[in-house]
Known about the structure:
Elements: E1 15-19, H1 26-42, E2 51-55, H2 61-68, E3 73-77, H3 94-99, E4 104-107, H4 110-116, H5 120-132, E5 136-141, H6 145-149, H7 153-162, H8 165-169, E6 176-179, H9 193-209, E7 219-223, H10 228-235, E8 242-245, H11 252-266
Parallel strand pairs: 1-2, 1-8, 2-3, 3-4, 4-5, 5-6, 6-7, 7-8
Helix pairs in contact: 1-2, 1-11, 7-9, 10-11
This protein binds 1,3-dihydroxyacetonephosphate.
Residues 19, 109, 180, 185-186, 223-226, 244-248 line the site of 1,3-dihydroxyacetonephosphate (13P).
Amino acid sequence: MTAPANTEKVRRKPLVLGNWKMNGDVATAEQLLSGLLHGERELPALLAGVEAGVCPPFPYIGLAAARLAASQFGWGAQNVAHFDNGAYTGEVSATMLRDLACTWVLIGHSERRAYFGETDAQLSTKVEFAHRAGLVPVVCVGESLAEREASKTESVLAAQINGLCTALASTNERFVIAYEPVWAIGTGLTASPEQAQQVHAFIRSRLVAGSVPGAAGARIIYGGSVKPSNAQALFGQPDVDGGLIGGASLVAADFLSICRAAALRSIR
Ligand code: 13P
């Protein structure tokens, strides 16, 4: 495995995103957002050196936009259509997300791949539409437990990354990769900091091999049972540039504490 030198550590601002998944209602969304704003008021320097945001379910993105507009938090979406606007019942286009002032959009989360059969070709199209609309695609990759146990982690990730290189190369260096081992999502099992580092370095080497511009400076964030108790150790690794947080992003205090752990990385 080739681990490229981590020469651009300083330039990679840590990124922490909360993926709320299909949880909550208006009342809990309001509560969570006001918890985040309260945390920011209490500790104004909390987000210094960190980029942080939430990805609520579609119906609550407008609410997040309204509540977070004057804050340092951003917001994004959990999915986007692989079509332009038109007769695609039930879909949400990249330009609609731009209208909601989204910064990020998650693409290819393992739950989308598993439950909705999203293919590499669709994911590439999503990346291109997202970029064209001015959004930053956060492309999720990761291996299953069976694949890890069969020592296929690298071949699975290489195939996922290879399929996306052309689309990523078209984003003018505005993309993020989220490494989310499927076996660590919502299970309480976390990749060890060393396991995460090894895979993140491998992903970066595949981006370089695929001639994706900006590979060295691209943020590769980790997702899978990140908690306040393990965030600092994970973010302490040279190629772990932040986190994509599921369960813990539904508790304002936990999410804030994970943001704080990422802030420590930026002042290392
Ligand atoms: P958990 O943090 O709940 O494991 O979820 C991770 C995830 O899937 C974020 O996208």
